[in-house]
């Protein structure tokens, strides 16, 4: 849609609120994208594969939010070097958005070691996933599933997966919708009252295993009701 501009927080948030995404490539101006289709996740419909259910039952990992934002962004940047993803200027912009309360990270810990996670931008009942990483198999999926289930409990409307759908996201239940449908949902979501007072406490006193079971029970009930 456009070329140039800057990484000021207000410009980035305005873009996201209109379904536009900034993309950076090394030594090139910012590119601002939209698309005829969008890949999205409705948190209440997140799919949890059997191998992930087994992993969650093992209780090997701990999930936190906003406890290591800078480390998560750095880890995501390291895993995408071949794609010139997350330039220095873009990383600084996400740090600013985090300080302003718009950008958040989910961390997966094995003991004291950070082994996976993701980060994204949120306002109203909308969350845009920027990037994820895994230093141990399936930990990025664990971060995404944990966040999806928790946001479903908080009545979040949508998790935006971007304009390039991947098999990885679709395996977790993401779907592709038209731009018109996406913008209609976005308009409702961006103006909704904030429902999370403290992102850092999002997983405190929260049982992931029980929440996942509740989620699966809810999907089963919904499916049975649809057959009646």
TrEMBL record:
SUPFAM superfamilies: Acyl-CoA N-acyltransferases (Nat). It is found in: Cytoplasm. It catalyses: N-terminal L-lysyl-[protein] + L-leucyl-tRNA(Leu) = N-terminal L-leucyl-L-lysyl-[protein] + tRNA(Leu) + H(+); N-terminal L-arginyl-[protein] + L-leucyl-tRNA(Leu) = N-terminal L-leucyl-L-arginyl-[protein] + tRNA(Leu) + H(+); L-phenylalanyl-tRNA(Phe) + an N-terminal L-alpha-aminoacyl-[protein] = an N-terminal L-phenylalanyl-L-alpha-aminoacyl-[protein] + tRNA(Phe). Its EC number is 2.3.2.6. Keywords: Acyltransferase, Cytoplasm, Transferase. One of its GO terms (molecular function) is leucyl-tRNA--protein transferase activity. Gene3D superfamilies: Leucyl/phenylalanyl-tRNA-protein transferase, C-terminal domain, Leucyl/phenylalanyl-tRNA-protein transferase, N-terminal domain. NCBIfam families: aat. Functions in the N-end rule pathway of protein degradation where it conjugates Leu, Phe and, less efficiently, Met from aminoacyl-tRNAs to the N-termini of proteins containing an N-terminal arginine or lysine. Belongs to the L/F-transferase family. This is Leucyl/phenylalanyl-tRNA--protein transferase. It comes from Acetobacterium wieringae. The lineage of its organism: Bacteria, Bacillati, Bacillota, Clostridia, Eubacteriales. The gene is aat.
